[in-house]
Specification:
alpha/beta; Rossmann fold; 2 domains; five-stranded parallel sheet; four-stranded parallel sheet; 38% helix; binds phosphoric acid mono(formamide)ester
Amino acid sequence: MAGKLKNGWKGRDVISSLDFTRESFELLFNASEEFAEGARARARARSDLLRGKVVATAFFEPSTRTRLSFSSAAAKLGASVIDLSTEVSSLAKGESFSDTLAMLDSYSDIIVLRHPSEGAALYASEICKHPVVNAGDGSQHHPTQAMLDLFTILRLKGRVDGLNYLFVGDLRYSRTVSSLLFALTRYKPGRVTLTSPPALGLKPETRSVLVRYGMSVREEQNIERSVESADVIYVTRLQKERIPDQVEYQKLKGSYRLTEGLLEATKADCIVMHPLPRTEELPTSLDASPKAAYMRQAGFGVPVRMALLSLILGVA
Ligand code: CP
């Protein structure tokens, strides 16, 4: 598998962060810099890069950040966006997923797809002749989130290698956690620590991928101990929509939380990330802390997705 990986972006599907090399991530982040705040003038000068292109968004699950940051990225580059509004499309008349995708493929240059079922993006990429970007499917893959997460770490910490990472919360059903862990296999992270209620630990299949790529992770139940040495704390909400048993959900609700006291115990230059949306695990009282990076992280979704669209459509 690793032998087949390629670095280039033109015409590529984006299905899993495991499909990408460190070199391809670096190409993306260099391009993202051109669209990030601080290089606004250059971004403005390139605002017609995608003129004449059509970006289709098809979200079969709710989304605020991914859907709107892809739309914003496309608009800033001069592309048109067509959105499959799933409730008012002919899906409501019983049209199949594959016929729906075939239509999007004939009306657009690239398809951004979110779906509750694992493998939906891969299946779509087999149907469509245009590139398909996985905007999150099932509980394992959300590769463009991992890309913007890495970009956030690079921007705020200056490097990805050698940092201590702490993942807190629902590590079982959170696809942003597994996608970022998969992406980190392309780097040389310091210590990677997992802190979660036992029922929400990493899935064995996720763990076995990490083992295959030689990445070791350690579990630490005591959050007071685990926050102390972290450079990056990545918190996730309880993924209510993917927990099969709602009785179990009620038991786990409120079982972890990053408090002000815990934040005080972290290193002075630690950053706290969260893919958002948040629930009670990340209180708004933390927002004023310089360590709170999650709003900046969400903002980086636009330049990273501008770079992604430009590279895939071959204009960057
Ligand atoms: N981080 C993320 O995927 O957020 P949305 O569900 O709002 O897109």
